[in-house]
Amino acid sequence: MPSKPVFSEADKKVIQRRLRELCEECWIAHGYKKTSIKYLCDKADISIGTFYTLYPTKEDLFSETIEHIQKRLKEKVLDTNRRVGTKEGFAQSIKELLREYDSKPFLYNVNTPDFQSFVTKLPKETLEKIKFDSFEAFEQAAQAANLTLKMEPSQAYGILSALLTTTNAKETLAATCDYFAVFDCMADILVNSIFA
């Protein structure tokens, strides 16, 4: 009987990083439901048994993947705001965020049946862990850009959150106009209204 391979902690981290990369690629292309453990293992060149020594369930890998994606997006927004440090830079980070959301609906649209089938399988503790605190991220981005609000932070956050939900109206708007041009104009106007 063949013995199980023994992996060092460094080996495990390399395999986990590769599985997260593959998970993100497959999630973007096919969604959660159509991404199988077998496919991920074949692509990562590991056995299904190895997968289960690293992740008790498929959902554990997906949860870890979404945590890394959220961290990466937050850092990208903060980096833009630290680097540019103006209202225009803040508006640019919002525009980039929308384009990221738009380009990967399986990954970011939490209202799709595919995404809902993922979250309904998660225990409450995991849901809390992956729950992204957008309000905190908004405050950090404004701080990173050294911007001063003209209104209560919760109101400013609500306005920008409502702006980002226009992705749901993209198809309707795109029938009569350039959706991204409309969004960009709204972002510029709203950021100028929100910050001094």
From TrEMBL:
This protein's UniProt keywords: DNA-binding, Transcription, Transcription regulation
Domain HTH tetR-type: 13-73
One term of GO molecular function: DNA binding
A Pfam cross-reference name: TetR_N
Residues making up the signal peptide according to the UniProt record: none
SUPFAM superfamilies membership: Homeodomain-like
DNA-binding region: 36-55
Protein name as it appears in the record: TetR/AcrR family transcriptional regulator
